[in-house]
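Bench notes, bay 3.
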Amino acid sequence: MDYNMNSQPNVTETESAHLMLDCNDEEKDQNSSVLVYTGRRQCFPLSRATLAILLTCTSLASILLFGFMLHTLRFRSHQQPSENTLPLPGTEFGSCGDTPSSARQSNCTFDIMSFSWLPSPCADPELTAEFAGVRNWTWWLDTDKATAVSPEEVSRGDHAELFVTREYHMYHCTYMWRKLHKGLLKSLETPEKRGIIDTYIGKYGHTSHCEMMLLGMEEDHGTVQRNVTDTAIVMKFPRCMWT
């Protein structure tokens, strides 16, 4: 049965675009569930199978679009300038634990000049070797120098505390300052990289300690006895730190 357009009430184009009508039962397909109204008021039945296909395609398109957007965002994040991905100065990383055994398991290095177990990134074997070769350094188990400990034994990093001379203490301080300076300069010389120091020299307290020790020797007007063994050096387990 056809609809007579003249017998219908006036409908604007905007209103007709949103109308949904049912046709007479004679014009409905048995599998039809939704009838779409057009400007000519013709019935176009959409079967359940057709609806399922449309919904499936829409869902797949949405998933693909979301995946593409996510991939694009990740790609752009990897294309940012390297300086945006650099770690913040002062960020700590690496750990040797708190025992020689845990330090060895973490592949840490024992530094005889700082008397510290260090994660590999903040160790400086070349600088350590340079200072270790300045003098024929000796460590002792006590202040009266009754029992000496060889550099080879010290380098194994098993002694929690040893005694050293005042001269060793002086060189220890200058060694730490040079190591600190090298770590700070690394960031200036290579902007796309960060320098690395250890948290032992990264603390201002150590610099202040060395300053007071050296100034105290200066006040003795050069009469300080460098070979006096009155300095205890204690094992430490600092972390690494970006500069």
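Next record in the batch:
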Amino acid sequence: MSKSKMIVRTKFVDRACHWTVVI
């Protein structure tokens, strides 16, 4: 559960950073 949550959070952060870079 912890690992899954971490992976999801990492994916979310990665996407947010990608969007920030795009903008």
